[in-house]
Amino acid sequence: MRILLIGLAAATLAGHAAAQGRMRIGPTVSTISIQDSSGTTHSYSSFGGTLALITSDDGEFGLAISRYADLSSDACTRALTFFGVESNYYPVGTKGIAPFASTAIGLARVTESNPRFGCGLITTTDTTNQIGLGFGLGVRVNVGNQIAALLEGRFFQVPNSAIQALEGRANVSFAFGKPRRTEMLNGTFGPAVGMLFSLSGPLEGRAPTLGVRFRRDSKKHGTVSLQVDYASLRAPAECPTDCEPNAILFAPGYEASLHLMWGRLYGELGPLLAGFPTQGRERGIAQGAQGGLGADIFGGGSLMWNVNARVLWLQRNSGQNAFMLQLGVSLSPKLEPAVTAAGGH
To answer: Do 303 and 316 form a contact (C-beta atoms < 8 A)?
Structure first.
């Protein structure tokens, strides 16, 4: 189960580790929200730093360290130091005000009281090394040529610990160096909304999904996409407790396209991650795959509509499999067909 999770994040990060490009370095602060066993949310702060390299006009690869000095809501000790490699994907480039999708994986050194029932009486603590993983959305604001400020919201987890949380991060960096161009062509993004229906298994949607859809064309490799959704789910077979979890769905994909006069038809296939930050049976990360069909329809002026239908497969922490159908629609700035853009590049 964890092999798929680690492999997905490693592949995402490795894709951006290319030749030298524009760099930035600066401090990072964050606020992380963690629920205790009673369902009460507690917020904690962290500090650290980031060194990142823009490897192309659409991607950034970096190293970061964060120190969470106190993550405990009682007399117990819980602290975390996270050493991570991070990747930011910029569908419309890194200049000006630039939205991005983020992925992080790294070493989490967790210090906790042992045993838990002896907190406040027994001072013994254990430090363990684990894998930490984060994914989310953010925006980069460039101030002149030397300053870059980043704001990000993400789901962050350290398996086998109580750290499954939502985190808000802020970074201000000094930037230097020259950018490197890529094989990617036009990129676009826009808001997305959808509905989830149960096909098989214990999960179903209880409200529309809300998110952001990214898309970018490549000269050689077709189209890559990413959709990040906030999903309100229900597990009716397990009510009356822990039956309405919320999740962050992170769905990168590859799209095989057929370009037409009015737009584009495509088939999509890719992995799927779901982060559950709240207390309950689902808490943590579930993984699986997603695939389906869709169409980009050129509207008036510079707008483009997208309609799609895809099947989501998630493997729960209990080992159960859930299959859902997601019907969605999104709106974004218009993209020209890849063949047209490549001819004029």
So the answer is: no
Pair 287, 133: CB distance under 8 Å: no
Q: Any bridge partners for residue 149, and if so which?
A: 141, 172
Beta bridge partners of 28: 48, 171
3-class DSSP assignment, residue 339: helix
Determine what percent of the chain falls in helix, strand and coil, rounding each to the nearest 5.
5, 65, 30
Cα–chain-centroid distance for residue 244?
Answer: 22
Strand partners of residue 275: 248, 285
DSSP states of 98-146: EEEEEEEEEEEEEEEESSGGGTTT---EEEEEEEEEEEEEEEEEEETTT
Cα angle: 214, vertex 215, 219; to 5 degrees: 150
Q: Which residues constitute the domain of residue 43? A: 2-176
Q: CA dist 49 to 56, 65, 130, 153, 264, Å?
A: 22, 6, 20, 17, 42
Kindly tell me if the per-residue pLDDT of 270 is higher than 60.
yes
Q: Is 323 found in the same domain as 230? A: yes
The CATH number of the domain where 246 resides is what? 2.40.160.20
Element (H, E) at 66: strand 59-68
Phi-psi region of 121 (alpha: psi -120 to 50; beta: other; left: phi over 0): alpha
Domain count, the chain: 2
**What distance in Å separates the CA atoms of residue 282 and residue 288, rounded to the nearest whole number?**
14
Residue whose tokens read 């086998």: 160
Where does the pLDDT of residue 181 fall: very low under 50, low under 70, confident under 90, or very high at 90 and above? low
Stretch 298-324: mean pLDDT, rounded?
A: 87
Q: How many CA atoms lie within 13 A of 47 on its CB side?
A: 2
Residue 332 to residue 301: CA distance in whole angstroms: 12
pTM: 0.72
**Cα distance between residue 135 and residue 153, in whole Å:** 8
User: Side chain identity at 78, as an amino acid letter?
Assistant: R
